[in-house]
TrEMBL record:
<dbReference type="Pfam" id="PF00155">
    <property type="entry name" value="Aminotran_1_2"/>
</dbReference>
<feature type="domain" description="Aminotransferase class I/classII large">
    <location>
        <begin position="36"/>
        <end position="392"/>
    </location>
</feature>
<keyword id="KW-0032">Aminotransferase</keyword>
<dbReference type="InterPro" id="IPR004839">
    <property type="entry name" value="Aminotransferase_I/II_large"/>
</dbReference>
<dbReference type="InterPro" id="IPR015422">
    <property type="entry name" value="PyrdxlP-dep_Trfase_small"/>
</dbReference>
<dbReference type="GO" id="GO:0008483">
    <property type="term" value="F:transaminase activity"/>
</dbReference>
<dbReference type="InterPro" id="IPR015421">
    <property type="entry name" value="PyrdxlP-dep_Trfase_major"/>
</dbReference>
<dbReference type="InterPro" id="IPR050596">
    <property type="entry name" value="AspAT/PAT-like"/>
</dbReference>
<keyword id="KW-0808">Transferase</keyword>
<protein>
    <recommendedName>
        <fullName>Aminotransferase</fullName>
        <ecNumber>2.6.1.-</ecNumber>
    </recommendedName>
</protein>
<dbReference type="GO" id="GO:0030170">
    <property type="term" value="F:pyridoxal phosphate binding"/>
</dbReference>
<keyword id="KW-0663">Pyridoxal phosphate</keyword>
<dbReference type="InterPro" id="IPR004838">
    <property type="entry name" value="NHTrfase_class1_PyrdxlP-BS"/>
</dbReference>
<comment type="similarity">
    <text>Belongs to the class-I pyridoxal-phosphate-dependent aminotransferase family.</text>
</comment>
<dbReference type="InterPro" id="IPR015424">
    <property type="entry name" value="PyrdxlP-dep_Trfase"/>
</dbReference>
<dbReference type="GO" id="GO:0006520">
    <property type="term" value="P:amino acid metabolic process"/>
</dbReference>
Length: 403
């Protein structure tokens, strides 16, 4: 290798570390040093995986068939259960062959872009966006085209905003509702308007529904699949068990789409990772076939914490936190805090503010820069009630309450 050659490929060298995982790692490292850090960083429920799901995994460990390779697209029973769940929860009747089981929703996102995006294609990306999307788009050779909607728009884009960003090179739209990082949920009408616009343009829609069971205040989740049936030939749903069943570490997700897309994505997976761990697939099957009552209990806890966090954040002078109606994130606009002095330091960006809050108040939050423009923080409220109260008290003390 000549000295002028770079050791890491341009494609991979350009990837940034996942900012949310980085904040979490930093908080855990400080904790390991004995600092009492409270983490609002990680997007994972603090509940254990329900017992009946764990029991199904334990049983699967006893079956030697699970020690072997299985079909790359997923265990037939799980694909069938996902097809049923898609009909029940997303209003789309699909064949089992339209389902691909992946290593978490994250791999489904990656494979969806790899499968439909070519070099130089534009992909419309509503911002603030989940931090993985732009990297997955770039890895597929595409250009993420950010379409921003701020707190004043309830963090929701419209067909007009999308139209302004559309070019003849636009190949796909990423749609995420309920949203990570903002917690915004599009209404049925808003979803329909965007889906109809996309259908008229003939572009793909990749719709990430991983938070579909977590909505509050009576807000109803309506899938893009149900809202715009004419989009089905160009629609890819992404989903998984991580958030709904407190199963982040089990790594089971899926994508659902038209036959040709799923077949091509399966070919990719057959070379990339083959089948998802059979024991984890058995656990996911138990989750999907089981009742949703434990999910309801978790949602109630999240709902209580949501109200506490929004109230606590809005009590800080310079913070404007719209009420999120889905997922488990609050996304306050903190532009009012930038340029002010805290403990002798004047943060000019939300990244500097987050750094300062971690260092001085021992509270981990993710800066808006991880999800789009500066000026925002993301706080996950999927942490215990006591930590939540203590974390808010520290933030209020450090940043100052409203007079
Ligand atoms: C919007 C969104 N989609 C997909 C995922 C992927 O979840 P997993 O890979 O854990 O199934 C996440 C996880 O944070 C997410 O927030």
């Amino acid at each position: 290798m000549s000295p002028s050659q770079q050791r890491i490929s341009r494609r991979i060298g350009a990837i940034a570390e996942s900012a949310t995982l980085a904040v979490d790692a930093k908080a855990k490292a400080l904790k390991a040093q004995g600092r009492p850090v409270i983490g609002f960083g990680a997007g994972e429920p603090d509940f254990p995986t329900p017992d009946y799901i764990v029991a199904a995994a334990a049983e699967a460990l006893e079956n030697p068939a699970n020690f072997r390779y299985s079909p790359a697209a997923g265990q037939p029973k799980l694909r069938a259960a996902i097809a049923r769940a898609t009909a029940r929860d997303s209003g789309w009747e699909v064949a089992d062959s339209q389902v691909l089981v992946t290593n978490g929703g994250k791999q489904a996102v990656y494979q969806a872009f790899q499968t439909v995006v070519d070099d130089g294609d534009d992909v419309l990306l509503p911002a603030p966006y989940w931090t993985t999307y732009p990297e997955a788009i770039r890895l597929a050779g595409g250009n993420p085209v950010e379409v921003f909607a701020g707190a004043e728009d309830d963090y929701k884009v419209t067909p007009e905003k999308l139209e302004a960003a559309w070019t003849p090179r636009t190949r796909a739209l990423l749609f995420c509702s309920p949203s990570n990082p903002t917690g915004a949920v599009y209404t049925a009408e808003e979803t329909r308007a965007i889906g109809e616009w996309a259908a008229a343009k003939g572009i793909f829609v990749i719709s990430d529904e991983i938070y579909q069971h977590l909505t509050y205040d009576g807000v109803e989740f309506v899938s893009m699949a149900q809202a715009v049936p004419e989009l089905h030939e160009n629609l890819i749903l992404v989903n998984g068990v991580a958030k709904t069943y407190a199963m982040t570490g089990w790594r089971v997700g899926w994508l659902v789409g038209p036959q040709d897309v799923v077949k091509a994505a399966t070919n990719l997976q057959s070379h990339l990772s083959s089948n998802v761990n059979n024991v984890a697939q058995a656990a996911a099957l138990a989750a999907l076939e089981g009742p949703l009552d434990q999910v309801d209990a978790m949602r109630e806890a999240f709902d209580r914490r949501r109200r506490t966090i929004v109230e606590g954040l809005n009590a800080i002078d310079g913070v404007n936190c719209p009420v999120p109606t889905g997922a488990f994130y609050a996304y306050p606009d903190v532009t009012g805090l930038l340029g002010r002095e805290f403990d002798g330091v004047r943060p000019e960006t939300s990244a500097e503010l987050a750094e300062l809050i971690l260092e001085k108040a021992e509270v981990a939050v993710v800066p808006g820069e991880a999800f789009g423009p500066s000026g925002y923080l993301r706080l996950s409220y999927a942490l215990g009630d006591d930590d939540l109260a203590e974390g808010l008290a520290r933030l209020q003390k450090f940043l100052g309450g409203k007079n």
